[in-house]
TrEMBL record:
The keyword Disulfide bond does not apply. Residues 402-430 are annotated as: Disordered. GO terms for molecular function: transmembrane transporter activity. It is a multi-pass membrane protein. InterPro entries: MFS, MFS_trans_sf. It holds the Pfam family MFS_1. This is Major Facilitator Superfamily protein.
């Protein structure tokens, strides 16, 4: 897996991703402390609103920025987004009102909604071989999981010697470092842009989704991930501290089990996807993710005194593993279903559509958990996930992975030109 880091362009971009993730992790901790410093007991409301603003920015801004920047060099777009994120991080320590937080968070997340899909669309051009690209996807998944574990630990260590506002300095360093590494990266030549009207460019990615059975199935899979993931993200702390009355440290332990399951699958997937295609892996992962959430509902129907902590750890590990099995290969579908010219729009569409699912399931998980209890909430979200998984299975039939023509402006075959039959072999040509 680490062999892909021998590619200097990818090594720099992966380093940029890791540095930016660390900065974002420090920002998450610092933002929570800033909200408490300003709003006191209402800090949860502030953070919940900030999370909603983040989702709205992701859903609304990503396709618009993809359309606006379609003719711009991708390197310049990435550097500009990092500059904006760094400037916002510089301003956050000086806010004194909650609405200041909301405005700055929207700007920050709008920049991230520009950066992330553009970054993701560049990687398949730098790593054209599908085996290398799959390894890159697994490394990216590992980076996200490790950041979720290590950033809070780093923040806790730093807070023993510096005030929380100084954590924003780490965020600035992360985004500036990311921008510098992007600037030092050699990008592949970009296909000539067309002069299509803005509305055409704005809807290009969604239209690709509508035409492709694979990508329509991915829309349903996004619902599975959002329904099950929202329960974990929103209600783990409620389950551990309120329902089970366990100490704060056990929240981290349960989330670590989730992250460990995700990392194990991310490590195994490159070899597994050399033997089987994306379809059985993703569909089986979606079904198991939905059924595991229903198993969580059944487990939580027991009284707290009868609830097995070991069983919860195992279930959370399975939830993490199946989520990774679904999410890690998903970008392969996007690459296979796009061409060089429309790839940024397709990645932006996936970015917006997947987060739109979370925009619905986050408040659903929180409100249902508070009103009807965790067991019933898990049952409802698991039921939604089961329906979505069935839709994905029906839509994504074996013949739906159809080969497409080569990317314009490139002499070699695109990933879209390789049918699903080639994915069953060890080699993954691009």
């Amino acid at each position: 897996m680490l062999a892909v880091l021998k590619n200097p362009s990818y090594a720099r971009l992966f380093s940029a991703q890791v540095i930016a993730l660390i900065g974002t992790g420090l920002l998450t901790v610092a933002l929570g402390l800033l909200a408490f410093n300003i709003a006191g007991g209402n800090a949860g409301i502030v953070l919940g609103t900030a999370l909603m603003i983040k989702m709205v920015a992701y859903v609304a801004v990503s396709p618009v920025m993809a359309a606006l920047t379609a003719s711009l060099p991708r390197k310049h777009v990435l550097i500009a987004a990092d500059i904006v994120r760094a400037l916002v991080a510089v301003g956050l320590p000086f806010v004194t009102e909650t609405w200041h937080i909301y405005v700055l968070i929207f700007v920050l997340q709008a920049a991230s909604a520009t950066f992330t899909p553009t970054f993701q669309a560049v990687i398949p051009e730098i790593l054209p071989a599908e085996r290398d690209y799959t390894c890159a996807l697994s490394l990216s998944r590992l980076a996200y999981d490790l950041e979720a574990v290590l950033s809070p630990m780093l923040a806790a260590a730093l807070l023993t010697v510096i005030p929380f506002n100084d954590l924003f300095i780490g965020t600035v360093v992360g985004f500036v470092g990311s921008g510098l590494l992007v600037a030092l990266t050699t990008f592949p030549p970009m296909a000539a842009s067309d002069a299509a009207p803005f509305v055409d460019r704005l809807t290009r990615g969604v239209r690709v989704f509508v035409r492709s059975a694979e990508l329509r199935a991915l829309l349903a899979i996004n619902v599975v991930v959002a329904a099950c993931g929202s329960f974990v993200i929103v209600n783990t702390v409620v389950l551990v501290q309120s329902y089970l009355s366990r100490p704060e440290q056990d929240v981290a332990v349960l989330l670590a089990a989730y992250g460990l399951g995700s990392m194990v699958v991310a490590l195994l997937l490159p070899r597994a996807l050399g033997a089987v295609s994306d379809r059985p892996v993703m569909l089986a992962g979606s079904a198991l993710l939905a059924l595991t959430t229903l198993a969580v509902a059944a487990t939580l129907s027991a009284s707290p005194a009868e609830l097995s902590w070991t069983r919860l750890l195992i279930l959370w590990a399975i939830l993490g593993a199946t989520t990774s099995a679904v999410l890690t290969p998903s970008a392969r579908l996007l690459r296979r279903g796009s061409t060089e010219s429309n790839r940024p729009a397709v990645f932006a569409a996936q970015f917006a559509l997947s987060h739109a699912c979370f925009l619905v399931t986050y408040p659903l998980a929180g409100n249902l958990g508070a009103r009807i209890g965790l067991s019933s909430t898990a049952a409802i979200l698991g039921g939604i996930a089961v329906v979505a998984a069935v839709i994905a299975i029906v839509v994504w039939r074996p013949a739906a992975t159809a080969p497409a023509g080569p990317s314009p402006g490139r002499g070699r075959r695109s990933t879209a030109a390789i049918g699903e039959s080639s994915e069953s072999r060890a080699a993954h040509p691009a």
